[in-house]
Amino acid sequence: MIEELIDGGEVLLALVAEGLSNKEIARRLFISEGSVRNYVTPLLEKLQLRDRTQLAIFYLNHY
To answer: What is the mean pLDDT of residues 45-62?
Structure first.
């Protein structure tokens, strides 16, 4: 189930867990900041998390 929610974004989540900003993640992955937001925001909603800190903790607990 978790893999379905994450849908290939493990690298992006790892960068969130490292504390990188959307801008820094976008630069590392050669995508736009908007693409990062468009991935992170719905994921927070799906996982019922409030913020990036909770998302980072979720990632660290599951990977």
So the answer is: 94
Mean pLDDT of 21-30: 95
Count structural domains, the chain.
Answer: 1
Q: At what angle do helices 52-62 and 10-17 cross, to 10 degrees?
A: 120
CA 38 to chain centroid, in Å, comes to 10
Burial class (CB in 10 A: 0-12, 13-18, 19+), 61: exposed
- Would you mind telling me the total number of residues written for the chain in this entry? 63
Question: Domain containing 31 — which CATH number?
Answer: 1.10.10.10
DSSP 8-29: T-HHHHHHHHTT--HHHHHHHH
Is pTM beyond 0.85? Reply is no
Across residues 38-42, what is the average pLDDT? 93
